[in-house]
Amino acid sequence: MRFSQTDLKILEQLAQGTTDIKRIAEHLQKSDKQIYASSQKLKTKNILDLFNGNLEPKKMPHVTFLLHLLQKNPNLTTIISGSGLAILRHLITPKKVTDIVQEAGVSKTVVYDKIQQCLAISIVKQKADNTYMINPDIWSDLREFLNALNIYDETTDPRVPANSTIYHKNNKEILFSNNSSLDAARTAFSAYEQYGLKLLLPTTYYYLPKKDISKKDVFIHSLHITEKEKDIRHLTYISLFYAKYKNELTDVKHPLLDNIKQILQGKHIEGYPPLEEIQEKADVYDIRL
Questions:
Q1: How is residue 252 annotated by DSSP?
Q2: Could you tell me the domains of the chain?
Q3: How does pLDDT run across 106-117, given as a tens digit for each residue?
Q4: Which of 148, 175, 150 shows the shortest CA–CA distance to 160?
Q5: Is a pLDDT exceeding 90 seen at residue 283?
Q6: Cβ distance 57 to 48 under 8 Å?
Q7: Could you give the CA distance from residue 6 to residue 257 in angstroms, rounded to a whole number?
């Protein structure tokens, strides 16, 4: 979710009890048309409703937390706007800049600039291992908002049907599953058949924007899904795919894959399929482990 400074200024007005578009426009020295256009965007993001020239915020935890936050700290609009929110939501737990870049889909320069802004007012603190995180002692209310937003965002996105399960997303892409036939690229386990592994699946895994997805990305998407929904069957499928194409997947890094490599070398790890079980499936697909 991304907000402009105007979006946040409108929400700040709502937090202060001003709901009429004309009055909000006067306070922000904007035209009625500008406020109406921004309000429509906020409505699309499911933040508020618009009734006869009046705005009403949605009664949802993340919206309530945001309004309280802006009421107490109006200067936060500069920090949260643009890519700020995408960066901050990944700092609930300690993260390195490289991790934030990958997870948020934002350039390293933008991440560094935003972190410097946050350090200046103690929103973020730097730890000894060069990781950064929200300062919970000073900004506990910001952390509450980010937690609520993440919970909402994990289950909702305007790009996909409401009954979808979301596994990974940023501003540029989204990985999800749905039981319906959709105009999106099939990926992860739903694309394994293209590579000689026909599977019976209870759902279909999709990627947007629709495009041709490489073998490597199909595999990475499988890891994202299994990271969120750890399933022995998924781990077995990933093991088979990796065993068949490992020479083409040497640069893929992921904790699940690290464990699978150890399993394929004969090590037993709790929660993972044993080598014998993977070997049985490999024999069916004529894969050499």
A1: -
A2: 5-77 (1.10.10.10), 83-154 (1.10.10.10), 165-284 (no CATH)
A3: 899 999 999 999
A4: 175
A5: yes
A6: yes
A7: 44
The tokens 């996105």 sit on which residue?
157
Q: How confident is the model at residue 171, as a pLDDT?
A: 76
Q: Are 61 and 107 in contact (CB under 8 A)?
A: no
Residue recorded with tokens 């973020």: 124
User: Which tokens sit at 224?
Assistant: 């994202």
Task: Give the pLDDT of residue 264.
Answer: 94
Reply yes or no on whether the pLDDT at 103 is more than 90: no
91/104 Cα distance (integer angstroms): 10
pLDDT at 161: 93
Residue 209 phi, psi (nearest 5) = -70, 155
The DSSP code for 104 is H
- Return the structure tokens found at 226: 């299994």
The residue whose two tokens read 């320069």 is 109
Q: Within the chain, what is the greatest distance between any pair of CA atoms?
A: 72
Q: Give the Cα separation of 6 and 53 in Å (integer).
A: 17
